[in-house]
Specification:
Blueprint: H1 34-50, E1 63-67, H2 71-76, E2 82-83, E3 86-87, H3 90-96, E4 101-106, H4 118-130, E5 134-139, H5 163-183, E6 190-193, H6 212-230, E7 238-244, H7 246-258, E8 266-270, H8 280-294, E9 297-302, H9 332-348, E10 353-357, E11 382-383, E12 389-390
Parallel strand pairs: 1-4, 1-10, 4-5, 5-6, 6-7, 7-8, 8-9
Antiparallel strand pairs: 2-3, 11-12
Helix pairs in contact: 5-6, 7-8, 8-9
GO biological process, one term: pectin catabolic process
Organism: Phenylobacterium montanum
EC number: 3.2.1.89
Length: about 400
């Protein structure tokens, strides 16, 4: 595995789950693990002393995750997921390959589909927690896809123009949803207030100037609702704001800070080489800048890479040759190398996790609003040439990564 650093390479205990925080060393494992962790700590301490870098560790987690929002629908459509030839529960497959986090999207009232509503989300969260994984709940605040191009207000709120009333609606929906989940023992561990909120919440479109008085009020209402609902949780959820492509975070967060957006714990980034102007190195620099500037943890919460340019069905592939980076071919090995190098980049620059978007959106006989089949079958972790058996890319969550020493500021 390529890396720009040459200090020392040690497999991280417990699949890289438990990590330390310090002003200078962001990646020392802490917590349980017995003699193996003690051995690692001794080696790490010796290496850090050798380069003159003291470490003061506190508890932390590196997230290896997958957005599995499509799984319930795919299985209802007949999908079977295999691991080494054996049909298995996909949530079990991801847990076995190192995942400790499942991301799931929530739409307000999606009358065009029976998935990604609250009942479907409850099922996904229960399946994730049943495998011992944490959950990141992604509020879209829409009845359909909200993303970096558009933020379509849900139909129930579409006619509301008063910012105060709209903020109250957003607050109450967020609070009530989280309270309902908690009442069923399904409290999420992390919560996104919006999905790829580059445009203004509840009606913004790409390229349209943001009314930051309105936008800040809406964002702060969502953030406050998470904190208020979280008071009844077994442990307080962490709040994330999410922006598509790292270059957009560089202008969005200064504007948000100036408008008074506050109270969040995490910055989430989508990083797709097809739609980003940043190289892997550029992504790393943005992560480091955001962490230093805002004192919060930073994660890549969406990424993907094709393992082939072939297509399993008639649905056009969303990621084609234009999605490739030099040195990372559209092969199973190329996908695996991209994910390993991306993850090492995130670690090197103080990031706190990598989540792959929809690695189980395999081809079935069902249709999306756009086509029959899947537009993502060549970017999953399941080989459609071999009965949807696991590909090597899924093991990016189980690889050894370089623990490194960097001058990194402590997160809050």
């Amino acid at each position: 595995m390529a890396s720009p650093l040459h200090h020392f390479a040690v497999p991280l205990p417990q699949r890289g789950r438990n990590w330390g925080r310090s002003a200078r060393d962001h990646s020392s494992p802490v917590g349980g693990g017995g003699p193996r962790v003690a051995w690692w700590r001794g080696l790490a301490a010796a290496a850090l002393l050798a380069i003159g870098t003291p470490t003061v560790a506190t508890a932390g987690t590196f997230y290896f995750g997958a957005d599995l929002s499509y799984v319930n629908e795919m299985q209802d459509c007949g999908a079977q997921y295999r691991d080494h030839g054996q049909v298995k529960d996909p949530f079990e497959i991801f847990k076995d390959h190192g995942a400790n986090l499942v991301r799931v999207r929530l739409w307000n009232d999606p009358d065009w589909t029976r998935y990604s509503n609250l009942a479907d989300v409850e099922k996904t969260i229960a399946r994730a927690k049943g495998q011992g994984m944490q959950v990141l709940l992604d509020f879209h605040y829409s009845d359909t896809w909200a993303d970096g191009d558009k933020q379509i207000a849900p139909k129930a709120w579409a006619s509301i123009t008063d910012t105060g009333e709209l903020s109250h609606k957003l607050y109450q929906f967020t609070f009530d949803t989280l309270a309902a989940l908690n009442a069923k023992g399904l409290a999420p561990d992390l919560v996104q207030v919006g999905n790829e909120t580059n445009p203004e919440l509840l009606g913004g479109v790409k390229g349209k100037p943001i009314d930051w008085t309105r936008n800040a009020a809406l964002l702060n209402a969502g953030i406050q609702a998470v904190h208020d609902a979280g008071k009844a949780f077994p442990s307080a959820p962490r709040v994330m704001l999410h922006i598509a492509q790292p270059e957009n975070a560089e202008w969005w967060f200064p504007q948000a800070a100036a408008a008074g957006v506050k109270g969040y714990d995490l910055i989430g980034l989508s990083y797709y080489p097809k739609w980003s102007s940043k190289t892997l190195a550029g992504l790393g620099h943005t992560i480091l800048m955001l962490r230093k500037t805002y004192g919060v943890d930073v994660m890549v919460v969406e990424t993907a890479y094709p393992w082939t340019l072939d297509n399993a069905d008639s649905a056009p592939n969303l990621l084609g040759a234009d999605a490739l980076l030099p040195g990372y071919p559209a092969t199973p090995e190329g996908q695996a190398k991209y994910l390993a190098d991306l993850t090492q980049t995130v670690i090197d620059h103080g990031g706190d996790g990598v989540v792959y978007w929809e690695p189980a959106w395999v081809s079935t006989g069902c249709s999306t609003p756009w086509a029959k089949g899947s537009g993502w079958d060549n970017a999953t972790f399941f080989d459609f040439r071999h009965g949807d058996d696991t590909l090597p890319g899924i093991d990016f969550m189980n690889r050894p990564y370089l623990p490194v020493s960097r001058l990194l500021p402590p997160a809050k």
